[in-house]
Amino acid sequence: MKMRVMAIILCGLFIFPLFISARSDENRQVEQSGASVFSEVDSYIAREMKRQRLPGLALGIIQGDRILYLKGYGQADSSGRPVTPETPFGLGSIGKSVTAIAVLQLVEAGKIDLDAPIQRYIPPQYKGAEFITVRQLLNQTSGFTQISTFSNTLTSINDHYQDAIERNSLSYAKKFLKDTKQTEHPYRYSNANYVLLGYIVQQVSGQSYGDYVKKQIFDPLSMHDSYVSLDEAAAHGLATPYRRIFGYNVAYDGPFVYIAGDSPAGYMYTSAKDMSHYLIAQMNGGRFEKNSVLTSESIRLMQTEPVPGTYAMGWSSDYINDLQVIGSPGGLLGFQAQAFMVPEQQLGVIVFANVLDAIDAAWPKTHVITTTHIATGVINILNEQPIGGSGLSISQKYLLVNGLIIILSIWLLYSTARTAKRCFERRRDDHSVHTKISFGVISRIVLHFAPLFIILLLSLTQMVPLWHIATIFQPDVVPWLKIMTVLMALKGSMEIIRLKLLKISMWRR
Question: Given 3-state DSSP classes, what are the helix, strand and coil percentages for the chain, each rounded to the nearest 5?
Fold first, then answer.
């Protein structure tokens, strides 16, 4: 018996070091493999940041209940301050899922009924509220439209009062809740849905939206670099937002970075580290570490579209190389973001950048932005798949845009100068001149003044709020259009002068 025990001990003494060595080699191989993959991710992001002229970028990768990789790239502002995983960025429409969590928490507490008409939770004067449910707001099937929200964006820009969400939501209610009959609406994206939901959270909880979100979502998920107000985010190192001016990044310090009344629709600020915690909760039935913000049933509900290809509750589904993903892009003036989750692999990716303009969008798929391409590329790298094309670079896009602008500008300047020269030339009084005066010149004059009239109408009225939004997001092309319409009107004026001079010349003869 003693001999057997001694033999077992001796075998253990020989085998255990070999086992430890094997485990150590295996761990080392895993670490080296991970380091190799993340090195490839770093190289890819460096290339894309250069191609797309991104000032700063933050990346978070999670799997299961672990953060695999967190890193900041580039600069957070013009001083050269580096981006870190704790640097706050604008969250954009990804924040709608935060509002969805807040609503579902109150559903779980028995304070909100998903299928109750919203008339139960808002003032009674809005008759159409009888025919819209909370679930329809969450799934964006209320019939509200996005383009009609832009006028609120413009008029509430300086509204920083405590009741900003109430003001905006009731403004949307007055605008949209007019139908007095039950109507089924298809999926139609609109910020108004989630602003109204934020107001309902306030009404039901008895707290401000910002206080509720901080206490019930941010704090339990250890999201210490997340804010529902611009002032707080700026005081804690918010990355500087940039716009592109003819392809060059220019810092933006205007008011449109933050619309207090629309904060439940996505005007929030957070970091890659915090969003990694958030994605872990999304991938683990509402739980992060020891805290839970929702049950697994509610998480599943908020990630499931009622009809494929529509909208869940803050999220939508898509495919990347046959892998189903759940995610959302986010965009604020000067900020863009993309979150993806791959349920099959328990994998999550979040990418932030601090520059955005209309040309970042992949037209006509405007929800596909630069960070969408980068997050897709990261998922492909992690799955050892080809990265795939990310479309034209910003330099290439602006080469086309600027080239077109230059060509049209030269043509219009030349045409205007030619008209000015001809305006004072002596013309023979012949039949061809009469024909041009009768049919050609007058029609051209009308066409020359029409664009200026349209631009003035758009600029001086709120008839088309989208025009004003375009002016904010694309501060290079829109002013150029205005200058061109003035030149065209000047050319038209010279045509009138020329016409009068020709008539005078003919009268004298």
Answer: 55, 15, 30
Cβ atoms of residues 240 and 251 within 8 Å: yes
96 φ, ψ (degrees, to nearest 5):
-60, -30
Q: CA neighbours within 13 Å on the CB side: how many for 469?
A: 17
For range 490-498, the mean pLDDT: 78
CB atoms within 10 A of CB 20: 10
HSE-up of residue 268 (Cα within 13 Å, Cβ side): 30
Q: Which residues contact 465 (CB under 8 A, 6 or more apart)?
A: 147, 150, 151, 153, 154
Is the Cα dihedral 36, 41, 44, 45 positive or negative? negative
| Rounded (10°) CA dihedral 431, 432, 433, 434 | 50
DSSP code, position 288: E
Distance CA 162, CA 149 (A): 20
Residue with tokens 């107001």: 199
Cβ neighbors of 37 (< 8 A, separation 6 or more) are 381, 382
The Cα–Cα gap between 144 and 390 comes to 33
First to last CA, the chain: 138
In 3D, which of 5, 241, 198 has the Cα closest to residue 95? Answer: 198
Q: What is the pTM of this model?
A: 0.85
Residue 182: the pLDDT is 75
Which region among 150-159, 186-195, 261-270, 490-499 has the lowest average model confidence (pLDDT)? Answer: 150-159
Mean pLDDT across the chain: 85
For 383-440, what is each residue's pLDDT tens digit?
999 887 667 888 888 899 899 999 999 998 988 888 788 776 655 444 444 445 555 6
**Residues 40, 45: Cα–Cα separation, whole Å:** 9
Q: Residue 223, SS3?
A: coil
362 secondary structure, DSSP code: B
Residues 458-484 have pLDDT tens digits of 777 766 667 777 787 788 888 888 898
Rounded to 5°, the CA angle 27-30-32 comes to: 105
Tell me the pLDDT tens digit for each residue of 24-70: 443 433 344 567 899 999 999 999 999 999 999 999 999 999 999 99
Instruction: Please give the backbone phi and psi of residue 341, each rounded to the nearest 5 degrees, phi first.
Output: -125, 135
Q: Report percent pLDDT > 90 for the chain.
A: 55
Residues 196, 100 contacting (CB under 8 angstroms): no
- In sequence order, what are the beta bridge partners of 327? 316, 340
